[in-house]
C-alpha cells in the first residue's frame, strides 16, 4: 500500500476550515445590513441618565430626531437641557413608567413613527435571594423584562406599517449578568436572561418587515444607579465583578450605537464580553460568517475558559464562606 505524501496531508489541512467557511457563507442568516441614524427617529427608554442618556447624546450628535422616556419628569428636563447644550438638538421627552402599558403606548403614539427603538430601562439590586423581598423581585422583573415587552408591543404596529423608510431597528440593553448568572444577581440575571429569548424570537417575527434586533451586553458601567448598587452589594458580588472591570457610559454608548448601525444581533462592549458572547451564543442569529466561523472553531477552548472563570468564582465564594463562619 502506497504511503500518503506529507505534501498531500498539508494540502488537506486548509480544506476543512475552508469548507466550513463556505458552508457558513451559505447558511448564515439574517444577511448583513446597515441601519442609518441621521434624519431618523430614535426613541430611547431610560433616556434621562446613564447609558440611555449617553445614547441620546450620540444619536442627537449624529443628526437623529431623538425622543427619550423615563419616569422622572425632572430628570427628563435636565437631560433635555444637557443634550441641547452639547449638540444643539432639542429632544422630545415623555414621562411614563414602562410597567404601565397604556402610559407607554400613549407616549409612543405621541412621539410618532419610530425608526430605531432602544429599550434601555433597567433596575437592579444586588442581594442574595434569601434576603430579597418578593416585592423587590417582582419590581425588577416587571421593569426589566415585562417593561421591555410593553415598550416593544406599543411601538411595533407602527414600525411594521412604515413604508419606504429603510431598515428599522429594535435594540435591547441587557447586561453581562444576562449572559452568566452572578452571585447576588438572581432576580437581575433572571430579568436580563429573559431578554435573550425575547430578542431571538422577536427577530424571527420581524425580519420580514426589515426590522433588525440587537442585544447589547454592557459590563458594570459607571452610572448613578451603579454607584448606588455598589454601596449595598454583597462582598462576593464585588469580588466577582472586579474580574471584568467597569466602563464609562460614553464608551458603552459608542460601542452600542456602532453595533446598532451595523445591524449586529449581539453587541459586546469589552474583551471579556466578547469571550462571554462566544461562550453563550447558542441559537443567537449571526450575520457575519467570519464571526460564525470563530464561534464554531473556538467552542471547545472558550468552554474551557468559561470553566476556569467558574472555578475562580467558586473559589472566591468558598473563601468568603470560611471567613463568614469563623
From TrEMBL:
Keyword NADP: yes
Catalytic activity: sphinganine + NADP(+) = 3-oxosphinganine + NADPH + H(+)
EC category: oxidoreductase
Subcellular localization(s) per the UniProt record: Endoplasmic reticulum
GO molecular function: 3-dehydrosphinganine reductase activity; nucleotide binding
Key words of the record: Endoplasmic reticulum, Lipid metabolism, Membrane, NADP, Nucleotide-binding, Oxidoreductase, Sphingolipid metabolism, Transmembrane, Transmembrane helix
Transmembrane segment boundaries: 6-28
UniProt entry tagged with the keyword Mitochondrion: no
GO biological process: 3-keto-sphinganine metabolic process; sphingolipid biosynthetic process
Classification via SUPFAM superfamilies: NAD(P)-binding Rossmann-fold domains (SSF51735)
Domain Ketoreductase: 40-210
Domain of life where this protein originates: Eukaryota
Pathway: Lipid metabolism; sphingolipid metabolism; Sphingolipid metabolism
Assigned GO CC terms: endoplasmic reticulum membrane
CDD domains in alphabetical order: KDSR-like_SDR_c
EC numbers, comma separated: 1.1.1.102
InterPro entries: KDSR-like, KR_dom, NAD(P)-bd_dom_sf, Sc_DH/Rdtase_CS, SDR_fam
Family, per entry: Belongs to the short-chain dehydrogenases/reductases (SDR) family.
Record's protein name: 3-dehydrosphinganine reductase
Organism of derivation: Arabidopsis lyrata subsp. lyrata (Lyre-leaved rock-cress)
Amino acid at each position: 500500500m502506497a504511503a500518503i505524501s506529507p505534501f498531500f496531508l498539508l494540502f488537506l489541512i486548509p480544506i476543512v476550515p475552508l469548507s466550513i467557511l463556505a458552508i457558513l457563507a451559505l447558511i448564515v442568516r439574517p444577511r448583513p445590513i446597515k441601519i442609518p441614524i441621521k434624519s431618523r427617529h430614535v426613541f430611547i427608554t431610560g433616556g434621562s441618565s446613564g447609558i440611555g442618556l449617553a445614547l441620546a447624546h450620540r444619536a442627537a450628535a449624529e443628526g437623529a430626531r431623538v425622543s427619550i422616556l423615563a419616569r422622572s419628569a425632572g430628570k427628563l428636563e435636565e437631560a433635555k437641557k444637557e443634550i441641547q447644550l452639547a449638540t444643539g438638538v432639542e429632544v422630545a421627552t415623555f414621562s411614563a413608567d414602562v410597567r404601565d402599558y397604556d402610559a407607554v403606548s400613549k407616549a409612543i403614539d405621541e412621539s410618532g413613527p419610530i425608526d430605531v427603538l432602544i429599550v434601555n430601562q433597567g433596575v437592579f439590586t444586588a442581594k442574595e435571594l434569601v434576603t430579597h423581598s418578593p416585592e423587590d423581585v417582582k419590581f425588577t422583573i416587571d421593569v426589566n423584562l415585562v417593561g421591555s415587552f410593553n415598550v416593544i408591543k406599543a411601538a411595533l404596529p407602527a414600525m411594521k406599517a412604515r413604508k419606504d423608510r429603510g431598515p428599522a431597528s429594535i435594540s435591547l440593553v441587557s447586561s453581562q449578568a444576562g449572559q452568566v448568572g452572578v452571585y447576588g444577581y438572581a432576580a437581575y440575571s433572571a430579568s436580563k436572561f429573559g431578554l435573550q429569548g425575547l430578542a431571538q424570537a422577536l427577530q424571527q417575527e420581524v425580519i420580514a418587515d426589515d426590522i433588525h434586533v440587537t442585544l447589547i451586553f454592557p459590563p458594570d458601567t459607571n452610572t448613578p444607579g451603579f454607584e448606588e448598587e455598589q454601596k449595598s452589594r454583597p462582598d462576593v458580588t464585588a469580588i466577582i465583578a472586579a474580574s471584568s472591570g467597569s466602563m464609562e457610559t460614553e464608551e458603552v454608548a459608542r460601542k452600542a450605537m456602532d453595533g446598532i448601525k451595523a445591524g449586529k444581533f449581539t453587541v459586546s462592549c469589552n474583551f471579556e464580553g466578547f469571550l462571554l458572547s462566544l461562550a453563550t451564543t447558542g441559537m443567537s442569529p449571526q450575520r457575519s460568517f467570519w464571526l460564525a466561523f470563530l464561534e464554531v472553531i473556538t467552542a471547545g477552548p472558550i468552554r474551557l475558559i468559561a470553566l476556569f472563570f467558574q472555578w475562580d468564582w467558586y473559589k472566591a465564594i468558598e473563601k468568603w464562606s470560611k471567613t463568614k463562619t469563623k
